[in-house]
Automatic annotation (TrEMBL):
This is Dipeptidase. NCBIfam families: dipeptidaselike, PRK06156.1. One of its GO terms (biological process) is proteolysis. Belongs to the peptidase M20A family. The keyword Oxidoreductase does not apply. It comes from Variovorax paradoxus (strain EPS). Its cofactor is Zn(2+). Residues 1-26 form the signal peptide. InterPro entries: Bact_exopeptidase_dim_dom (IPR036264), M20A_pepV-rel (IPR010964), Peptidase_M20 (IPR002933), Peptidase_M20_dimer (IPR011650), Peptidase_M20A (IPR050072). SUPFAM superfamilies: Bacterial exopeptidase dimerisation domain, Zn-dependent exopeptidases. Keywords: Cobalt, Dipeptidase, Hydrolase, Metal-binding, Metalloprotease, Protease, Signal, Zinc. One of its GO terms (molecular function) is metallopeptidase activity. The keyword Transmembrane does not apply.
Length: 578
């Protein structure tokens, strides 16, 4: 099929010039043509309105004239005319509103909406302020707003009919470790002050999930202002507890009827139709006293949340001959790095305090669902302490690092525990030991992020894992408590006109292969009827949500703006979803 192509040099000279047109044909706009129109807009005279932008487009390609004429007459748009007008509106939104969207995202990032264990999320001032920000934005855009008890913030673009289509995002974020937000050149970042460096927008929540919220709000605004009628109301639902279990969505489900069809803007493109089941496996080691004559691990820390692989892990050693301990650690450092760096680069720092030796391992942070994209510092810290040859007192910390070494090591596929398996479509089971801390009772908590594909039930996996841990504890004379919450996997039927429409939007906009995929990340799509995920992660790129130095790339935000706008127009007017 021939694609709409226009000479870049002609376009940049000004699309308003008479006679400078491409051959006419009935064809929907695709990436090359969209890119050329974008270049013309940015390089020449810019249109101040969508109508003016349409004039530029139809001058460039006369085949668009019937669609533009139908739009201007407020006629019912169908087929390729609907697609082209929706696609042009998406491009216009991307070019016209980019700066405003970035500013809106910055205001959202400034609200530290991580869960505060001291108060319920719906009483968290940052969450409440986020709702007020969304309300102000929605009302200024002429959109309907509803606050469901500070659990869900709703924004609706009203359609003519009775059907609704659901769009789910979330406003809460995972915590950030400030010391890890430092760029390679030494630039220090504030996780809750968005900072642009090149094409990267750094800040907690920029990609997970506040970028999606800002983009879809401006997509709704743009569609409303265009006057394009939609038959189906588009209901945006902003969740406030997605990162910590989704109890706000459960509350909402008891209060509100959900749309029959839904998408979640919290995973990846092209369209995610299957998700692994997310779980958290915590093992508690009770406190044990040591007499101070033998060097002991007295503190350890890694990760602010179990669903994030931290950039750093640290341990404090006290007691015994600390000078000798430091010397032994320094002597072991080079060989340890040589042994384990083939699996991924990391660094070891050993410092002497007044009454301690402190060790810090710096790895590469990643989302807990994608351990293959990181270098987890916690198991490497445990292994270094054991392989260094330093004699350590047998306390709760030593038992915890032996547990990590014996049942996980530097692997993350459940191989050392003997529970690994994989599904051909959804991929392998992952067990990533991410978090270690001391709780209020003095116990060491060692937490593992689990992602379970199709092939087993949560009950089967839990029974296997708990039996293996209890077997290890008995062999090592360790008293442990196990808490294991394992969610189930989700797989949707990858069919229907609405899914085909989303794939068409993605493929034509990006020029990339468009087919249903699976994801390791778990979203609240599991809690919604007929729900799949559509963005914002781009294939082939590391997803930086939950990472230290989380960022959203501006070109990807542009693509979201363009695709979300077209999605509202086309899904909003789809005659049949299946």
């Amino acid at each position: 099929m021939q694609q709409f192509r226009v000479s870049l040099s002609v376009l940049t000279m000004g699309l308003m010039a008479a006679g400078l047109t491409a051959p006419a044909f009935a064809e929907t706009l695709k990436k090359p043509a969209l890119d050329e129109l974008a270049t013309a807009w940015q390089g020449g005279k810019t249109a101040s309105s969508f109508n003016a932008f349409l004039s530029q487009a139809e001058k460039a390609n006369p085949a668009l004239k019937p669609a533009v004429a139908a739009y201007r007459k407020k006629a019912t748009l169908t087929g390729d005319d609907l697609t082209n007008i929706g696609r042009l509106l998406g491009l216009y939104n991307r070019l016209h509103n980019q700066k405003a969207v970035i500013a809106s995202l910055g205001a959202m990032v400034a609200l530290p909406t991580a869960r505060n264990v001291q108060i319920p999320p719906h009483e968290n001032p940052a969450i409440i302020d986020f709702g007020k920000l969304v309300e102000k934005t929605a009302k200024s855009f002429g959109l309907a707003y509803r606050n469901v008890d500070n659990r869900i913030f709703e924004v609706s673009l009203k359609g003519k009919g009775t059907e609704e289509f659901g769009i789910l995002t979330h406003s809460d974020v995972v915590p950030a470790v400030l010391s890890e937000w430092v760029l390679d050149d030494g630039t220090k970042l504030d996780p809750f002050t968005m900072q642009r460096v090149g094409d990267r927008l750094y800040g907690r929540g920029t990609i997970d999930d506040k970028g999606s919220i800002a983009a879809v709000l401006y997509a709704m605004k743009t569609v409303k202002e265009s006057g394009i009628p939609i038959q189906r109301t588009m209901r945006l639902m902003i969740e406030t507890t997605e990162e910590t279990g989704g109890d706000a969505m459960e509350y909402y489900r008891g209060k509100t009827k959900l749309p029959e069809y839904n998408i979640v803007l919290d995973s990846g493109y092209p369209a995610v139709v299957a998700e692994k089941g997310a779980g958290s496996l915590s093992v508690f080691f009770p406190a044990e006293k040591t007499d101070g004559t033998v060097t002991a691990i007295t503190d350890m820390g890694a990760a602010a949340a179990v669903n994030a692989i931290s950039q750093t892990a640290s341990a404090t050693l006290k007691g015994g001959d600390l000078a000798a301990v430091q010397a032994k650690l320094e002597a072991a450092k080079a060989a340890f790095l040589q042994k384990y760096e083939p699996q991924g680069k990391f660094a070891i720092a050993i410092t002497r305090g007044a009454d301690s030796v402190d060790i810090k391992i710096t790895g590469i942070s990643a989302h807990g669902s994608e351990p293959q994209n990181g270098v987890n510092p916690l198991p490497r810290l445990g292994l270094f302490l054991q392989e260094s040859g330093v004699a350590l007192a047998d306390n709760q910390f030593l038992k915890a690092i032996k547990y990590i070494d014996d049942l996980y090591g530097t692997g993350y596929l459940g191989e050392k525990m003997g529970v690994g398996y994989k599904d051909d479509f959804m991929g392998p089971l992952t067990f990533s030991p991410n978090l270690i801390r001391t709780d209020a009772d003095g116990r060491v908590v060692m937490a593992v992020n689990t992602r379970m594909p199709r092939g087993r039930t949560p009950e089967e996996l839990k029974a296997q894992v708990e039996a293996r841990i209890n077997e290890w504890a008995a062999a090592n004379k360790a008293k442990v408590e196990i808490k294991y919450d394992q969610g189930n996997w989700m797989a949707r039927d990858p069919s229907g006109r609405w899914l085909a429409t989303l794939l068409d939007i993605y493929g034509d906009t990006t020029g990339l292969e468009a087919k249903p995929v699976s994801a390791a990340g778990a979203t609240t799509a599991k809690q919604m009827p007929n729900a799949i995920s559509f963005g914002p992660g781009m294939p082939g790129k590391k997803y930086t949500g939950h990472n230290a130095k989380e960022y959203k790339e501006v070109p990807d935000l542009d693509a979201d703006l363009q695709m979300f706008t077209e999605m509202l127009v086309r899904i909003g007017n789809l005659q049949q979803m299946q």
